[in-house]
Amino acid sequence: MSNIHVEARQVVVPGQILATGMDHLPGDNTFRREEEIVAKRLGTVGTDGRVIKVTPLNGPYFPRVGDKIIGKVYDILMSGWRINTGSVYPAMLPVRDASNKFVKSENLRNLLDIGDFCVVKITKVSSQNMVDVGMRDPELHRLEGGRVIKINCNKVPRVIGKMGSMIGLIKKQTNADITVGQNGLVWIRADTPENEYRAENAIKIVNEHAHQSGLTEKVEAYLNGVQ
Amino acid sequence: MAYNKRLDGRKTKELREMEARSGVIPNADGSAYFRVGNTVVYVAVYGPRPAPRFLANPTKGILRFHYNMMPFSGYGSRIRPGHKRRSQEIGKVMTGALEPVVDLSKYPNTIVDVFVELPQTDAGTRCAAISASSIALADAGIPMTDMVASVAVGQVDGTVVADLTYNEEAYDAIVSDIPVAVIHGSKEISLLQMDGEIKKEDLITALDMAVEVTEEIHCLQVEALTKRFMVQ
User: Fold this and answer.
1) A193-199 — which CB contacts under 8 Å span 24+ positions?
2) Maximum Cα interatomic distance, chain B, rounded to a whole number of Å
3) pLDDT value at position B223?
4) Can you tell me the distance from the alpha carbon of A46 to that of A10, in angstroms, rounded to the nearest whole number?
5) Neighbours of B4 (CB within 10 A)
6) Which of A85, A144, B134, B171 is deepest in the core (most CB within 10 A)?
7) How would you classify the pairing of strands A43-48 and A11-12?
8) How many Å lie between the alpha carbon of B184 and the closest alpha carbon of chain A?
9) Cβ(A147)–Cβ(A200) under 8 Å?
10) What is the mean pLDDT of chain B?
11) What's the complex ipTM?
12) CB burial string A14-29: b at 16+ within 10 A, e below
């Protein structure tokens, strides 16, 4: 007979026993120690069928294949760019994955210059965490204008909301284009500086209060209050 | 004369008044404040970040501690700032105390830096620093298999006591000071050092006492980490 010792969405610390018995399986950020399932990171507990997982509240971004991230170009090589992913591991963007056109190696700066931000997708992560990214899909491109802010990457799902509800609300109320990278970088560009500032603050509110309920009301109240 | 009554009136197993908070340094990836009696410690965690080439380990990340007592932290006489053998040693033993629980296998070629600063000290600094570092590392979202709590136990003139103050360490009799770090779940000891002399039986009693009283520190650590995220 197995027992769960914690409630759903309870905050747990590393080493805390989440369940005993073999009926459950350890999910993300947990591990099995003999009969017990134990938390490995500070976070909130969730269950998915028989799987018990911990959603972290804090911590670094870890690159995963398929993630759409916002990166910053920090070096140009012979046949590509080196991109800061916001995690400890930098990424490589080869020129053949960046554009459909032929680009000469001396003209790489015309496509992406040092200091440019771009939306890229992670295509490969090696065992030593060497990251490859691509920029050939239509939604992936260089970012022009606007501003880039950094939020906690673990709060990204809350910023996006269920089926994109939260980000949809902010976009609608502020007339802004917003791209949220899985690595916690958010790009905002609005028609006026005031709207851009409102969108930025709304996202920061979500970032700060992500673990609380009634978040949509809070953001709505802010967006309606400051016009 | 036997040491029947402790200098500050505590019971033998009683710890000094403690206080702990997490997330006190916004710039850091994780941080903690921990106070036990007059010993105050701040810990800031930065990382994982790229390790310097000569240190980088391609199989796992490295944990590194920087321990420092501030110049004004002692009892009046200025502590010369800078690199010292003592702080280097304490940094080393702290790494040993926390390495068994910190799992950096997913972060090859990186380093996690833990900076420990003590603005005020009254014995038990490495123990307070280990307890605080455990909070700060968890706060930084570093994968850990368990928490570590630490306390000094020892013997003052034949009486086994927990959490010695400076005055007790300097008591004019045979004294021993044994910093112990205990891994909460398994009750394994990850740090054990000793100054002074102690009888075999007393040492066993003292270690049992350490395991027992670190439970109290662990509760405080959990509270410091979870309180911040409680829904108001």
Assistant:
1) A196/A146, A196/A147, A198/A173, A198/A174, A198/A222, A198/A223, A198/A226, A199/A170, A199/A171, A199/A174
2) 58
3) 96
4) 8
5) 9
6) B134
7) antiparallel
8) 8
9) yes
10) 95
11) 0.92
12) bbbbbbbeeebebbeb
Q: Is A217 among the domain residues?
A: yes
Q: Is the omega angle on the peptide bond into residue A60 within 30 degrees of 0, that is, cis?
A: no
Q: Measured between alpha carbons, how far is B152 from B147 in angstroms, rounded to an integer?
A: 17
A117 shares its domain with A179 = no
Options 3.30.230.70, 1.20.1250.20, 3.20.20.80, 3.40.50.1450; CATH for B18-226 is 3.30.230.70
Q: Determine, yes or no, domain membership for A203.
A: yes
> Taking CB atoms and an 8 Å cutoff, what residues of chain B touch A42?
138-139, 141, 225
CA B123 – CA B114 distance, rounded (Å) = 21
Q: What residue ranges in A126-200 does DSSP mark as E strands?
A: 131-134, 147-150, 176-180, 185-190
Q: Which residues pair with B110 in a beta bridge?
A: B50
Domains of chain B, residue spans: 18-226
Q: Give the best residue of A58, A126, A154 to mutate against chain B (max B CB count within 10 A).
A: A58
Cα angle A220-A224-A227, degrees, rounded to a multiple of 5: 140
Contacts of B229 in chain A (CB under 8 A): 11, 44, 57, 211
Q: Which two tokens stand for residue A34?
A: 């003999």
Banded model confidence at residue B1, pLDDT cuts 50, 70, 90: low
Residues in chain A with CB shorter than 8 Å from the CB of B146 are 14-15, 38
Domain that residue A101 falls in: 68-134
B50 and A16 within 8 Å at the Cβ level: the answer is no
How many interface pairs between A and B have CB atoms less than 8 angstroms apart? 83
**Structurally, how many domains does chain A consist of?**
3
What the block records as the tokens of A18 is 């989440």
Which residues in chain B touch residue A33, judged by CB atoms under 8 angstroms apart?
A: 145, 185
